[in-house]
Amino acid sequence: MINTTHPQETILVTGGAGFIGSHTVVQLLKQGFKVFVIDNLHNSVIEAVHRIRHLVGPHRSNNLHFFHGDLRNNHDLDKLFSLTEFDAVIHFAGLKAVGESVAKPRRYFDNNLVGTINLYQVMAKFNCKKMVFSSSSTVYGQPDQIPCVEDSKLHAMNPYGRTKLYLEEMARDIHEAEPEWRIIMLRYFNPVGAHESGQIGEDPKGIPNNLMPYIQQVAVARLPHLNVYGHDYPTKDGTAIRDYIHVMDLADGHIAALRKLFATDNIGCTAYNLGTGRGTSVLEMVAAFEKASGKKIPINMCPRRPGDATSVYASTEKAERELGWKAKYGVDEMCRDQWKWASNNPWGYQGKH
Predict the structure, then answer these.
(1) Residue among 120, 140, 160, 214 flagged as catalytic
(2) What are the residues whose beta carbons fall under 8 Å from the beta carbon of 168, sequence distance 6 or more?
(3) For 59-82, what is each residue's pLDDT tens digit?
(4) Residue 233 catalytic?
């Protein structure tokens, strides 16, 4: 693919201290972009930003600027957009725990919807109309067909998924009204793994909601056992099947999407799946992590959780064809890199309290 970007294009990354954001910022800096991160550090820590600087070295870290702020605060956004001219925004910031969203829907609407509406307002005001948006495979709900293709029927099954669905609709409406906007919505499947250095990775606050950080905390003895929800699904081993994708593949998918935004005048508002196109069961993932870590993961079989789909994995043909992107890493590499991060940082960024 021809590199048409000028090396010093300035990208705003919202939620850039978080799990996927931090890995994407590393790749952006390595590709020569100038990066501003805004993060309220609600579910992330400033240590992640320090580690990014260390990873990319002193020369590239000069291109990284951190701004502590919240998208729900218009004053923060005005201040940030007054600092510099942004060529595009990669929008990660948001809450993402399905279970929590069921218990606290208002919190999710406030954070994910209000924050994004404010972001669109300030982008329009400062004439920055290119966005790569973090969507989610949860917009497919319990899919009618698998693999999920981008024009499948959309149906979210929980408040978190609905916020992503509303935000996709919002993006389409904004583009319909103002065709100069270019918006790519990336529907992530199940991001796992960590940077190969073991320096940055996923560090959820509290009890993890996702499988891999949970397994990781059992492996380092922070939690006694893994709860597996649902062992009577109509799958080969009775556990649910998901499409796990290495976070570095996901980060590279954002760079590919960004290049597409810059290179394509008429991209409009379009969605791409980012996954591997392969389904892996919960028990297969546990076995792969045991192999990578040499640790036995004790399991507690639990009933299914409401709102969980049996099997979800991606069709990745559209991203391969139009973005020139394809996942490179398999389950073994995901577990290897996740274990390196976990064993280097058993208590995450903060160390043990």
Answers:
(1) 160
(2) 133, 135, 139, 154, 185, 271
(3) 999 999 999 999 999 999 999 999
(4) no
